[in-house]
Amino acid sequence: MRTVKWILPVLTMCFSALPLTAQCEESVQTLAPPNTSASLTFAGTSNGNLGGSTSVSNVNIHTLLYPGHTTKVLAHYLPWWADPASRRVSVGYRSDDPAQALRTFKDMQARGVDGVIVDWYGQTDTHGGQPDTRDQPEPIDVAWRKSMPELAKFPDLSFSIMVDSGTYSFNRCKDCDVTQTVLSQLDYISRTYFSSRQYLRYNGHPVVFEFGMDWSGKVDWSRIQAAHPEISWIHIHKQGFDRDYSAGAFVWVTAGPAAHKVSVANLSQLKEFYRYARTEPAKIATGGVFKGFDDDLASWAKPKEKQYMPQACGNTWLQTFDLINQNYSATRQLPFLQLITWNDYEEGTALEPGIDNCVTLQTHLSGNALAVKLSHAATVDHLELYESLAGGGFRLMNRYAPATAVIALPASASGTLYLKAVGKPFFRNVLSSPIMVGRSE
């Protein structure tokens, strides 16, 4: 008869209690290796960011969208990191490092991302929105320009600029109001970026996003549009639909008070955005998806104003896609979708190191039947069964639906097998402990 053994879940290494060699540990890591642009030295944070050693699904992000979509998926990107950092979170890399930029764009492309929205603080920014300049990277604009030669190696990736309110707070021109500051920065953006073949365009017009400039003071958007009629402006939230000179609107994550944490995300504001977008079909709607929110580690968040939205083991991420699929179709397309965010570790929205789906994976071998017990199956794209080969290699034996309860193994199967739960896009992958298959003497 075949051996019978309960196998407990494990992510990247074998239990030392099992009679296996060090080669097993190395082999398991090979099947589920760290594979993102997050730093291997990043250990994860208490506000919901996974560590850089996580194995993350690179199933294409577009598989979560409705059939027949033409939506471009754009990652909100923050090129302001330095290490060591003056911030409360050290991510283990510098944004002005071209090698890191190359890893980032390679990772984005592997996951199916179509472009980058650069959170931009102005031509002369040196603080990334922070007053403390210790160990800061070079200005955000300089860091991004250093990244562009690496982006050029991925010609299918686009980029666009999001003019952040920090542009006025930290980099306004002398004696300028908000409108004059925006105009001065637009002249630079136009000269520096619009000529790039990779700059994001809609109906031939360069797209510029705007984040909260009106929070800094009254802005004369009609004057700005008249000065740069070539630009398609996309403004934050409902105001992007209401303004006469706006080309469209994008939605942002809205969380509740951290003092009253809830277990289920309140997505009413997101629902309202899509409802309102239906009344403005001529405007460019940029949807938003996110895993959750927790600004407990953000130095700019005042203690009594901290906000929180639960990740709910990946349910929040999936629900934000469900809302898109309920409101759009092949006959009513969503032009752009923003991933919020690629790497804002301080607000707990970083998608770069993946999303924790809380998956556990157990297997029970009896004869030729391998029983599978998988938690949080809604976050899993598929299962993969691997056979360990002599010399340290692996052979993919088959793929299965995540709902598979029993796998019938071939009678000839023997040796060491592994079952891998491959997550839906951006979720972590989970690997079983070794499954020992063999005939007893």
Automatic annotation (TrEMBL):
Determine the domain of life of the protein's source: Bacteria
Entry keywords, A to Z: Signal
Q: What are the top taxonomic ranks of the organism?
A: Bacteria, Pseudomonadati, Pseudomonadota, Betaproteobacteria, Burkholderiales
Q: What is this protein's name?
A: Glycosyl hydrolase family 71
**Does the keyword Signal feature in the UniProt annotation?**
yes
- Give the range the annotation lists for the signal sequence: 1-22
Q: Which organism is it from?
A: Paraburkholderia phytofirmans OLGA172
